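Ticket #4471: structure output looks truncated?

Reporter: J.K.
Steps to reproduce: submitted the chain below (414 residues) through the standard prediction queue, then opened the result file.
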Amino acid sequence: MASKYQAPRGTFDVLPEQARTRARVEGAAAAILARAGYEPIATPTFEDTELFERGVGRSTDIVRKEMFTFEDKGERSLTLRPEGTAPICRAYLEHGMHKLAQPVKLSYVGPFFRHERPQAGRYRQFHQIGLEAIGTDSPLADAEAIMLLSDLLGELGVPGVELRLGSLGSLDSRAAYLEELKAHLHAHEGELSKDVRERIDVNPLRAFDSDDEGTRGVMASAPTIVAGLEGEDAEHFAEVRALLDAAGTSYVIDPTLVRGIDYYTRTIFSFVCDALGAQSEIGGGGRYDGLIEQLGGPATPAVGWAAGIERILLALDEEEQPAGRDAFVAIADPDQRQRAMALAVELRHAGLSAEIDLAGRGLKGQLKHADRLGARRVLILEADGSAQLRDMKTGVQRAADTGNLVDEMTGGET
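Returned output as attached by the reporter:
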C-alpha cells in the first residue's frame, strides 16, 4: 500500500539491493585510497554558511543559487554542505593538522546537498567519494590524486571514461589572465548571455561553461590560460603530464576546462563518461593552493578530487543481484525453534551468513523462502532431533552432524 508521503523532490531512498552495489563502490574506494596512505575523515553535514561563502566563492552558482541555508535557534546561518573540500580544510585548521607531518592525506565519503534541477545523474541530495592531500605543492601529489581516481574507475569497470586535463596557473598568473579574459568579454558584451554579462567582473571563467550559442561563439576566440602558462606554472603542468605519461594514464589537454568553484589553482582535471549524456562528469578536482589561507590559516598548498557515487552507478548500469546467504536453518517442527536460533547464531559467529524463518512458515514455505534468499545450503532440523543438509543448487540432501556444524557448512558440496 502506497503512503501519501514521498521522498522530497531531488532526493531518493537507497533500497537494500541498491545499497549492496553502493557498498561495492565505497569498499573499492576505501581499499584503493588506504593502500596509498589516505586516512578517512568525516565532517558535519552542516557548517557555518560563511565557510562556503569564503571558500567556494560568493560569485559561484553554488553559493548564489544552490545552497540549502537556514537559521538555527541561535540565529546563526548554517548551510547543508554542498561540497567536501572547504569543510575538510576547516577541520585541518581547527584540529591543528598543520603540525603533523605534511602532506596530510585524507579521504571521505558522504552526502552533499545542492538545490539544483533534478535530472539523471544530478540530485539535490547526492553522495561523493573524495580525497585531499594537504600540505604539498609537488606535481607528484597532483599525479597521484589523478591516478587514484583513474584506478578506482578502472577497477569498478566504468566504461567510456576520458580524462581531461588543464591548468589555471598560480594565483598571480591567474589574476593576470582573468584581466585579459575580462577585456575579451567586455569587447563582445552584446553577444553574451545575461548571466555571463552580469558576472564578467566577478567570475569570467564561468563563460567557458555556458550553453548559450552567442556566448559559445565569443568563447571560441577567447584567450586560454593553458596557452599562456610560463615559468613555474608551465614547469608544474609539464611535470604532471610527464608523471601521467610515465604511468600510462591517458588524457587529453582541454584548454577551456574550468571548475565551478573559485578556489582552484594550477592543475585541474575532469573524468567524463560518454554513457552519462549531458551530465558527463563522473569525478574531478584539482589543486587549491590558496584556500586554507583564505580561511584564515597559513599559506598551504593542496590538491584533491570528488567523484559522484550516483553518477558512477548510472554509468555502470548494473542489474542488482541478490546478496545470497551461506545457510538457512529450517525446522520441521515448532519445538525446534530454540535449537534453530542457537545454530544460526553459531554460524554467524563463525563468519557465515545464516537466517532462520521469522514468519511461521511451514517447511515447504521455508525452503521456498531460502531459495528466494539465495541460500547455498539449508539445514533442516527434524522433529526427532536429527538434521538434514540440502544443497540448494543440486537438490542433493544428506544427514548432517550439528555437533560439527561449521565444518559441515564449509566442507565440500553435498
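Triage note (M.O.): checked the attachment and the full C-alpha cell line is present. The chain has 14 helices and 16 strands.
Status: closed, working as intended.
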